[in-house]
Amino acid sequence: LFGVERYKNLRPSAMPGGIRKMAVVMRAMIMHPEFIILDDPTTGLRGTQKHILKDYLLKKKLSKKMKHLLIVSEDKEFLQDLVEHELFIANGKVKVVELHQTKVVGL
């Protein structure tokens, strides 16, 4: 699925970092969750791996099989087309940016 088939007989510690990251995401997605949280999912991934992961998440999102996706990342290019809202947290306040509207919520 994510190009990790050739590594299926290796222990995680013997896998390259990007492949190990893809295997973790793949393992989580096997259960077809309605909600998934990804913390810096592109760290350690090469360009091709980023595109494979993004395409997969887009397909899941568009098929409505994954209702909620929370991604913590600074990779704006990866987030483009995947997210509908951006959250910024600073000084005890959460700034929600959604479709050209902004609202601030206190914590």
Q: In brief, what are we looking at here?
A:
The chain is an alpha+beta fold and 107 residues long. The protein contains three helices and five strands, in the order αβαβαβββ. The longest helix has 16 residues, at 47-62.
Would you mind describing this structure in some detail?
This protein is of the alpha+beta class. 31% of the residues lie in helices and 26% in strands. The chain is built from 3 helices and 5 strands, in the order αβαβαβββ. The strands form 2 sheets. Strands 3-4-5 form a 3-stranded antiparallel β-sheet, with no helix packed on it. A two-stranded parallel sheet has the order 1-2. It is globular, with a radius of gyration of 16 Å.
Largest sheet: 3 strands, antiparallel
| Helicity, as a percent range | 25-40%
Ranges where pLDDT stays below 50 over 5 or more residues in a row are 99-104
Overall mean pLDDT: 80
Radius of gyration: 16 Å
Q: What is the H/E string?
A: HEHEHEEE
Q: How far apart, in Å, are the first and last alpha carbons? A: 40 Å
Total strand segments = 5
How many helices?
3
Residue share in β-strands: 25-35%
Per the principal axes of the C-alpha atoms, what is the gross shape? globular
